């Protein structure tokens, strides 16, 4: 029950998180959470603005004695990734998130939790509502559509904000302070083909890849996790080469920023290959499961006959090019950073594959902290897909956030972290797509930093946030607000 969440400490933050998670807030459908946030600001008697793209800005004056400090922008995004397990019955458009406590973790039952970035939003709400937290003048910036296009950050015009410092509350390791992030671009390949009738004497099979961990396609891309679309393609490639398998349909993955956990394909083979096909497939499945036994212990691949054989299939030549292009297309880490230890510089996530009714689409998210490297990999993908006859589109490109190691607010955060925790924080750049780089295009002089509590499994149904970490993070935020530098 969410009452269990409301009794956690700090109650001010957890209660706002519970309030927020009662409001459906998928990316591109933020109308209800925008109204929720506008009503919240207005009921507090604070200046509340909705800009032309839907971002909400709430302004709160400085507390007594803090008027001479620099204005601070507290920033988080309102939308959340909606993912659920196949066997979970849940309507994201109408239901609030069902949360529960599991030892040190807050989780959701069978769905994403929305801690990304709901904990950040709840933090800001608790500060806006408070009467006893010392702080300079605040501009709370709640952006929309961060997860599927960053159109909120892109649409925020210059001159709307007066703040000189921006605290982005959207990272997922409580011992890290982020000073840079990757940019990204969507790569979409589409094609049409003339279906052919299923040959006589064929039998139908459904192949299902499931049980993968999934995760954030930026923060988790280096962990060696399985990609359901790539695993499925291995099976289809071998089935085609060995038994003339033909594809009727594929539905794999979901959102571009989520590593795909599941894929389902319907295929046909000649009935004479029945037993040999199942035997051969099981050998490949065993090999794949052995490869992933450490990172994906719950991987399942199920091959089962279907009662109704598909009537139409992809023709052999179109399929020949499709499975080879999918094999060629890079997935995972492309290049590690030469400037920051253990940082992924460039990567790609083959996020969604759809094949049905004479149409196919392959959707990727390519990330990099180096703009030229981002398009180098994007062009590599484009080349593979164009060689199979696809139209390829680049869209939704957004810039990375270049690190500023001389940041004034960075010095403040490092000093407070060391004092509170008796240890050094990790000052890093991350491979996720934070909004700081985009916001910096219209606010180039704003000093930006990003931090947050520990969140695991973001963008997947195993998403969870550490309770102890939130209890560590909350006093960190409050002490930062007390120590904002004075105006020049």
TrEMBL record:
GO terms for molecular function: metal ion binding; metallodipeptidase activity. GO terms for cellular component: cytosol. Residues 208-292 form the Peptidase M20 dimerisation domain. Its EC number is 3.4.13.18. Its cofactor is Zn(2+); Co(2+). The keyword Nucleotidyltransferase does not apply. It is an enzyme of class 3 (hydrolase). GO terms for biological process: proteolysis. Transmembrane segments: none annotated. InterPro entries: Peptidase_M20, Peptidase_M20_dimer, Peptidase_M20C. Belongs to the peptidase M20C family. This is Cytosol non-specific dipeptidase. It comes from Myroides guanonis. It catalyses: Hydrolysis of dipeptides, preferentially hydrophobic dipeptides including prolyl amino acids. Keywords: Cobalt, Hydrolase, Metal-binding, Metalloprotease, Protease, Zinc. It holds the Pfam family Peptidase_M20.
């Amino acid at each position: 029950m969410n009452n269990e969440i409301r009794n956690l400490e700090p109650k001010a933050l957890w209660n706002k998180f519970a309030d927020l998670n009662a409001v459906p807030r998928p990316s591109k459908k933020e109308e209800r959470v925008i109204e929720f946030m506008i009503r919240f600001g207005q009921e507090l008697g604070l200046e509340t603005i909705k800009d032309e793209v839907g971002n909400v800005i709430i302004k709160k004056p400085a507390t007594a004695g803090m008027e001479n400090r620099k204005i601070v922008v507290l920033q988080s995004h309102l939308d959340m990734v909606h993912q659920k397990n196949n066997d979970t019955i849940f309507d994201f458009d109408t239901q609030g998130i069902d949360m529960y406590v599991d030892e040190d973790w807050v989780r959701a039952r069978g769905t994403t939790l929305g801690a990304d970035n709901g904990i950040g939003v709840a933090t800001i709400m608790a500060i806006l509502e408070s009467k006893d937290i010392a702080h300079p003048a605040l501009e709370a910036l709640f952006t929309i559509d961060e997860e599927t296009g960053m159109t909120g950050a892109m649409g925020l015009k210059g001159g709307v904000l007066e703040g000189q410092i921006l605290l982005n509350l959207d990272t997922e390791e409580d011992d890290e302070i982020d000073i840079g992030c990757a940019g990204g671009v969507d790569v979409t390949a589409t094609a049409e083909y003339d279906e052919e009738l299923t040959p006589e004497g064929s039998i139908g099979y459904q192949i299902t890849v499931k049980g993968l961990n999934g995760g954030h396609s930026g923060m988790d891309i280096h962990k060696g996790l399985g990609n359901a679309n790539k695993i499925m393609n291995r099976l289809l490639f071998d089935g085609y080469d060995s038994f003339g398998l033909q594809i009727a349909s594929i539905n794999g993955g979901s959102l571009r920023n989520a590593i795909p956990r599941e894929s389902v394909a319907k295929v046909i083979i000649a009935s004479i290959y029945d037993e040999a096909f199942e035997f051969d497939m099981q050998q490949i499945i065993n090999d794949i499961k052995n490869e992933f036994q450490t990172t994906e212990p719950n991987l399942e691949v199920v091959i089962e006959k279907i009662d109704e054989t598909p009537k139409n299939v992809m023709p052999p030549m179109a399929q020949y090019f499709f499975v080879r292009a999918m094999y060629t297309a890079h997935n995972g880490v492309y290049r590690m950073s030469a400037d920051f230890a253990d940082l992924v510089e460039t990567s790609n996530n083959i996020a969604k594959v759809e094949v049905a009714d004479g149409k196919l689409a392959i959707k990727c998210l390519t990330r990099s902290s180096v703009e030229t490297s981002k398009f180098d990999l994007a062009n590599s993908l484009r080349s593979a897909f164009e060689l199979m006859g696809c139209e390829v589109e680049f869209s939704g490109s957004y810039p990375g956030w270049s690190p500023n190691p001389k940041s004034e607010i960075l010095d403040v955060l490092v000093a407070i972290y060391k004092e509170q925790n008796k240890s050094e924080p990790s000052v890093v750049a991350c491979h996720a797509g934070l909004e700081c780089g985009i916001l910096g295009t219209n606010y180039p002089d704003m000093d930006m930093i990003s931090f947050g509590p520990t969140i695991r499994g973001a963008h997947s149904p195993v998403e969870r946030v550490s309770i102890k970490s939130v209890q560590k993070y909350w006093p960190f935020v409050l002490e930062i607000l007390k120590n904002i530098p004075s105006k020049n």
